[in-house]
Design a protein that fits this description.
This protein has a single domain, classed as Alpha-Beta Plaits. A hairpin with a 5-residue loop joins β2 and β3. The chain is elongated. A 4-stranded antiparallel beta sheet has the order 2-3-1-4, covered by helices on one side. The protein is of the alpha+beta class.
Length: 88
């Protein structure tokens, strides 16, 4: 069994959302390998991150759980799984 890398885009509720707090909450819930905050438009920001999970049959279940865990964080408006790839 290996690992998969999951590229995720997290949209925030507004320009006043504390990105550091949101990112810390994400790290508590998901194994984050890399993350960065990017400007989006009109003062809005988004977080792009790469998380890892165990490669197993039905990885879709894990991505659903990851997506739900991030969406539950206050200040997050949307979560998009951009890609899933085998890393090891």
């Amino acid at each position: 069994m290996g690992k998969v890398g999951i590229a995720i885009r997290v949209s925030l509720d507004g320009p006043d959302v504390d990105t550091t707090h949101v990112l810390n909450e994400i790290r508590k819930r998901v194994h984050v390998e890399d993350a960065k905050v990017e400007p989006l438009a009109f003062g809005l920001k988004q977080i792009r991150l790469v998380a890892t999970a165990d490669d197993k049959k039905g990885i879709g279940t894990d991505t659903d759980k990851i997506e739900a865990a991030i969406k539950a964080i206050k200040g997050v408006s949307d979560v998009e799984i951009e890609s899933v790839t085998l890393v090891s």
